[in-house]
Design a protein that fits this description.
The protein is an all-alpha fold. About 70% of the residues lie in helices and about 0% in strands. Helix 1 packs across helix 4, helix 2 crosses helix 6 and helix 3 crosses helix 4. The longest helix has about 30 residues. The protein starts with a helix and ends with a helix.
Length: about 140
């Protein structure tokens, strides 16, 4: 393996990990009737790094359209701190075959770590959403 391929592998690995975490969260949201697009995930330790990584995504109007694009722009403009919108944008890029680690800034260790943490937050929020749903149905 050449030196240049380690960052590339790291970037694709984190992009795919985020995609799979998002897909799991999306499936859970559908099952409990609280779709992921209605989730709010705030993590101030990630907002600065994710804003930096998301700057190029704002120009991707070929893949990011409508509310996904508007919400990403609002995140970049500091109108909200919901990092779930970054996850949605990156998920769209991976799902539509437009994700590249260089284009998403994920080849650096810091960029990859930010995306890894974002995927972790999706899974943690999935746990929280499921626990809330289960508590509601168990109380009925």
């Amino acid at each position: 393996m050449t030196t240049g391929s380690k960052p590339l592998i790291r970037g694709y690995s984190e992009g795919l990990r985020l995609f799979l975490s998002y897909s799991a969260a999306e499936s859970l949201g559908g099952a409990i009737d609280h779709h992921i697009t209605r989730w709010t995930i705030i993590d101030h330790s990630l907002t600065a790094a994710l804003r930096q990584l998301s700057k190029p995504l704002a120009k991707r109007t070929d893949v990011l359209k409508g509310s996904a694009h508007k919400s990403l722009i609002a995140f970049l403009d500091h109108e909200h701190d919901n990092v779930r919108f970054v996850a949605t944008a990156l998920r769209h890029l991976v799902a539509h075959g437009d994700f590249t680690p260089t284009g998403a800034g994920v080849m650096t260790k810091a960029g990859a770590e930010s995306i890894r943490c974002l995927a972790d937050r999706l899974l943690e929020e999935s746990d929280r959403q499921f626990a809330g749903w289960f508590a509601r149905i168990a109380g009925e």
